[in-house]
Amino acid sequence: xxxxxxxxxxxxxxxxxxxxxxxxxxxxxxxxxxxxxxxxxxxxxxxxxxxxxxxxxxxxxxxxxxxxxxxxxxxxxxxxxxxxxxxxxxxxxxxxxxxxxxxxxxxxxxxxxxxxxxxxxxxxxxxxxxxxxxxxxxxxxxxxxxxxxxxxxxxxxxxxxxxxxxxxxxxxxxxxxxxxxxxxxxxxxxxx
Length: 192
Fold this sequence. Notes:
Rossmann fold, 7 strands, 7-stranded mixed sheet, 192 residues, alpha/beta
């Protein structure tokens, strides 16, 4: 009887880490849209524009853009234009504060791209949950067709670094870059 009890306890102890992984390490909310006529094969090369920063953290837009760019490259879904060249073309053709359809068409010609990733960092700070403080990040991104201005894909993701197992604090993410990187992995995975 004790032997059966110990075997059951060992099995349960082995299952707990897998449940923690399945549940996730932080609280995440994600919404995504994929245009019903989006043909991924037609989009071979893209550019990534520096994300707007609506947070209070200086350079959050640039930091998250770099993480997004790296994650996008790692998927192999698209060839990606070199960021410095992308920014050079934008500066040359941009009139005013935003990137309009005319600028995207010039980017298409100059960079030989079919679409542009744009986005924003809406939150990049720490928040208190009860007596604990965790990072809080919200990223919005979209893929826009350079020829028509049609949004092919868009997603917004919010995550906090709190643990999904609060009593044990297992899986808590303690830094903003670590959380932002995890969110970039998740948001890029919605493109497929």
